[in-house]
Amino acid sequence: MSMFLSWLILSLSVWLTAAILPGFEVSSFWGAIKVAALFGLLNFFLGWLLFVLLGIATLGIGFLLAFLLRWFVNAILLKITDAFSTSLRIKSFGTALLGAFMMSALGSLGEFALRHLN
Questions:
Q1: CA-CA distance, 2 to 84, in Å (whole number)?
Q2: How many Cβ atoms sit within 10 Å of the Cβ of residue 85?
Q3: Hey, is 24 helix, strand or coil?
Q4: Mind listing the pLDDT tens digit for each residue in 39-80?
Q5: Rounded Cα distance, 39 and 103, in Å
Q6: 2: Cβ–Cβ under 8 A, 6 or more apart, which residues?
Q7: Cβ(22)–Cβ(104) below 8 Å
Q8: Among 22, 74, 78, 88, which is disulfide-ready with 96 (CB 3.0 to 4.6 Å)?
Q9: Is the pTM of this model over 0.85?
Q10: How many structural domains comprise the chain?
């Protein structure tokens, strides 16, 4: 899948998450596109580092439960994105955890649907 389509799916998942989840607010669809770009860059540059550091800090248990650790890292990255962007406002870390879960689920559904349409 091309990077543009992945970015579009992430933008849609950010926008839908904001529409569904109270406390997770995006200024507009254009804001969701900007948030998705910033989140993607942070995930590329910091996501792997946070994953490794937290995996080591949990004495390897985090690597065994990688799906939970990845979810936690995405919530942290969402809060960092919130701090750097004026287009995103997340009420609490709990809201970021729920938002990370919803964005992952919606993004997975979008990528699955796109693969099966071709």
A1: 26
A2: 17
A3: strand
A4: 999 999 999 999 999 989 988 888 888 999 999 999 999 999
A5: 11
A6: none
A7: no
A8: 78
A9: yes
A10: 1
